[in-house]
Amino acid sequence: MLWARRIESRHKLRRKISSVLPSSWRWTLGALTEKAAVYTTIHTKSIELYDKQGMQLAEELKAKIPPGSTVLDFGCGMGRPEKFLSSYCKEIYGVDISGGMLRLARKRHKNVQNVHFVKCGKTDLSVLQDCTFDFVFSEAVLQHMVKEHVVRILKELHRICKSNGKVYLQFCNLLCPYNLDSFIKYSLGSKILTSIRMRYWLPQEVQQVVKALGFEIINLEIKSDSRDENRDCQLDDYRRDYSIWVFASKK
Predict the structure, then answer these.
(1) Is the pLDDT of residue 44 over 70?
(2) Sequence-ordered list of residues with C-beta below 8 angstroms from that of 221, at least 6 positions apart, any chain
(3) What are the two backbone dihedrals, phi and then psi, of residue 38, each rounded to the nearest 5 degrees?
(4) Looking at beta carbons, which pairs linking 10-15 to residues 24 or more positions away fall under 8 Å?
(5) What whole-number distance in Å separates Cα of residue 43 and Cα of residue 166?
(6) Would you put residue 74 in left (φ > 0), alpha (ψ -120 to 50) or beta?
(7) Are the beta carbons of 111 and 55 closer than 8 angstroms?
(8) Domain extent listing, the chain
(9) What is the pLDDT of residues 176-206, one digit of tens each?
(10) Residues 77-96: tens digit of each pLDDT
(11) Rg of the chain over CA atoms, in angstroms?
(12) Alpha-carbon distance 165 to 158, whole Å?
């Protein structure tokens, strides 16, 4: 059982280090290798599962992206769905704060001509021109940002969208029992369910803030956070309502 205690000690050390580092540092340190980046993103070292989830996300996005669009992935990391969307879109751009993640993304997409990766600031998208994108999406990014920063990003997304351009954005739902439990435990300084700082939203908050920044809501969905067969959150009341996904159009 010595090996089991050693593994558990390593996990405890990793969680302790992770809990005291800012999210942006953890994201950068997680990009040292491709497997580390996969683990940082979806908490598994399976590149096959990473790609499978990317393909599933791409299929979801195709239902909302007009063919031949210019698309932006905000907070792209290594670019999970990009290669599965590339033949469907005119151009795809991924932006991220981590140069390491972008280095891995470029390596993974070196043979895909219409996919581009660009470094940006936390709330600064000035590297992108006004009225450029037909569609912008973001998953598992805004949930790690303070709300004031989210407001700035939404304003930037409105600027870079074309007239009637669409956004499809994920937020973390406070009303999900798993998220509410994590929030209360974090607030009380107790053992938390995740070592990564999360910022939770109410559906009405998302709706009102997105509308206030110049978007018209097309649809707002409460969904699970899983796409693979390993965790069927649709049947798990504890995590089923994990995410708020808002689909909106620039006025």
Answers:
(1) yes
(2) 244, 245, 247
(3) -60, -45
(4) 15/195
(5) 30
(6) beta
(7) no
(8) 46-250
(9) 999 999 899 888 887 655 557 899 999 999 9
(10) 999 999 999 999 999 999 99
(11) 18
(12) 9
